[in-house]
Amino acid sequence: MNMRKPQLVLALFGLSVALSGCGGLEYSLSAAETSTSIPEEFYYHTSGSCTDGSFSFKGLQGGGIMLWTDPANVLVGQVELYLSKDSTYTLRYREFTFDAQAYDTQVSGGVEVDDKTGVIAFENLGNAFITTENGRQVLQMTFNRSINNSLLKNQSVNFRTARVSDPSGTTVPDYCHYN
């Protein structure tokens, strides 16, 4: 057995756990902890100023997703969610091996919020709640489908507001005309 494989597996497991810190994998919800509306800051937006260099794109970043059962074939999923006020979403979904990015795609659809239960239904993707974890609001989504990997289905991921890439591929220097 190659002596580097155990180190590789431990390193990737650590990476997965660290990314999961961005979004816990399990969390129980009670009615008092959930919200029945999407917080304003959860919608995709820009922040800061091009003039002073503080400009950034803001969206929802999900925690790391373990997508392997065989330590010889480690795969980690990473997701960014862009919510729009027109009741649509775009999800950027990527998979990484230890060495490289293995897959990258976007999924889009409609969003419906149930005002009574707080369930947020993402068309062809899954259901979510807005809840509070460690004093910070998160969107906790459970995927009801696989995108590229069957291990994604039924996994839960917490999304938090963060700096994200622009879904159209526009970079900050291009947006701010720094070039």
Quick one: biggest sheet? 8 strands, antiparallel, barrel
Can you give the helix content as a percent range? 10-25%
* Average of per-residue pLDDT values: 84
Strand order of the largest sheet: 2-4-5-6-7-8-9-10
Radius of gyration: 17 Å
**Low-pLDDT residue intervals, each spanning 5 or more residues:** 1-32
Number of helices: 2
What's the oligomerization state? single chain
Overall 3D shape: globular
Strand and helix order:
HEEEEEEEEEEH
The N- to C-terminal Cα distance equals 50 Å
**Beta content:** 35-45%
Which class of secondary structure composition applies to the elements?
A: mainly beta
Q: Would you count the extended β strands for me?
A: 10
Question: Topology of this protein?
Answer:
Elements: H1 4-20, E1 45-47, E2 56-62, E3 65-66, E4 76-84, E5 88-96, E6 101-113, E7 120-122, E8 126-133, E9 136-143, E10 156-163, H2 172-175
